[in-house]
Amino acid sequence: MRTGLMMGAALMALLPLTAQAEAPVVTKQVYQLHQKLLTLDSHLDTPASLDLPGWSIEEGHEVHGDYTQVDLPRMKKGGLDGGFWAIYTGQGPVTVEGFRKARDFAILRGLSIRNMVAADPANFALALEAKDAAPIAAAGKRVVYLSIENAYPLGEDVTLLKTFYDIGVRVSGFAHFAHNQFADSSTDPSGKPRFGGLSPLGKELLKEMNRLGIVPDASHSSDQVLDDLLALSTTPILLTHSGCKAVYGHPRNIDDDHLKALAAKGGVIQMNAYGTYLRASKPNPQRQEALKALFGQLREDAKLSPEKRAELLAKRQEIDRLYPDTDRPTFDDFMAHMLHALKVVGPDHVGVGADWDGGGGVVGMEDVVDLPKITAALLKAGYSEADIQKIWSGNVLRVLAANEAGKGK
């Protein structure tokens, strides 16, 4: 069961990348400021890498070598103190058997994150409350909050969320690429709503989140789900990795009215760096066909051995050579979404959730080593150090603290 679901992790590690372009120059002064800030990313798909054969978070990796984007050496170099490490489960059949397999996989993925922390207490520390982040970072360790991307593994038993809370989960989404038992997705292949927002079971799940103090995450869910969350949640809402429809009208992004409504309820949008959601790109059919064939081969493997992974990486690199992706979104495209959100709702309601190791990354910001460029761009745009600290962690921690304070109410 577990190896079958692990294919999603390997797929994420084979997403499109190409050579870097120019981005903001980071001076020594800006770099020192960035390193001083408490920096958290609200959506790290890096736990998928933890279960790859032969891969270690302790070792430095090259983004154009194995296509991963986060490891301990790169976090240190890029000044990323940590964030929310996602338990991601791909959407499977909405059946008892599907729920069981997803549940078992998700619990094991959560344990993989906990094992990462336990294996290196000198460099990683589990965070359970908003107040935990600053002292962990001050001690030179990486901050590890847990989150759930896609609540599908909970099946039809919302009380199972308590098990994940006990593992350490403090943020949870509802749906992913397709509708599930809890909510409508913004990108369901049918193109049609199923519930018109949260399902009755989804409303029960929200109540359980509010009871436990888990932050509700509306990323990947439809606008109508966000409407329901804003109307029904007793605590502020987070969009852990999203963008702005005013910049690019993709279903995964939200419009200005929703941005303002989110902010009015104390919520925060964390800006995504997933290129497909930032702007339209020119079609590259040969590349897409080659990647489709590679992914199909990947799905056919019951287990990914180190040798098989090396073979697939070599094939992926050959695809990059033969059919380069010459129209990838850039750092400027990412900043266009961030600066628009800042213009609409201000620096109290915007943060960073780049979707590293889950498809995030743009030309000029390929992995977490490039994160100081965001600080440089925000300074150039006129934002103060205090504003930038809010954007990098203050806002998401405020939302977390508000959910803790509202627990059980």
Automatic annotation (TrEMBL):
A biological-process GO annotation: proteolysis
InterPro entries to which the protein is assigned, alphabetical: Metal_Hydrolase (IPR032466), Pept_M19 (IPR008257)
GO MF entries: metallodipeptidase activity
Signal peptide: 1-21
Alphabetical UniProt keywords: Signal
Pfam families: Peptidase_M19 (PF01244)
Protein name (database record): Membrane dipeptidase
Organism: Sphingobium limneticum
